[in-house]
Write a structure and sequence with these properties.
50% of the residues lie in helices and 14% in strands. With 205 residues, the protein is an alpha/beta fold. The strands form two sheets. Strands 5-4-1-6-7 form a five-stranded parallel beta sheet. The chain has a two-stranded antiparallel ribbon with strand order 2-3. The protein has eleven helices and seven strands. The two termini are 16 Å apart. α2 packs across α5 and α3 packs antiparallel against α4.
Length: 205
Amino acid sequence: MIRNIVFDMGNVLVIYDPVRVCRVYAQDEREIEWIRRELFGSEEWILLDKGAVTEEEAMERVRRRLPNERLRALADRCMQEWHIHNIEPRPGMEELVRDLKGMGLGIYLCSNASRRLRVYEGRLPGSRYFDGTIVSAEEGVLKPDAAIYKRLFEKYSLCPEECFFIDDLPANIEGGRACGMDGYCFADGDTKRLRAFLMERLGRA
């Protein structure tokens, strides 16, 4: 029996576009590509999600790779404000989370994200209904490592077989399954299809 729904954040609850913030401050596609590659597509971005570096440490490394002061200033601005522009609530998710909570299900978030998530957590669709949140940077481990799922189960006293995981990456779903938690790969971003699937799975179709 499913008693808990576990959501990923990026490209599930929200639409994440890493270059949206760049386009706010730059029009030159070459500059945008520099920032996409050297900041949002960098090893440092992954290390931030893992909690292995601070934002200041990450930006020091990123700045060293950028060829001029204009790009360094743009990178700094994008780092400071990316969460303002890059996080767009996915239509229909607020209502889906609300309805699942109304059915008596526990609602949890398990996300590969930096500590910055705590700044914008209240903007996430359905955040008012969360019963718990696991942030990779706070745990020092990334999905699909089994340790992050086990931390979720231990922290909130959950039975894996009673949890159902929604993530956009197949590897993360498989990581959950290896720990006893079934899931749904939300790669197509179709909220209506997800809703129909969950209602059928929960016997509410």
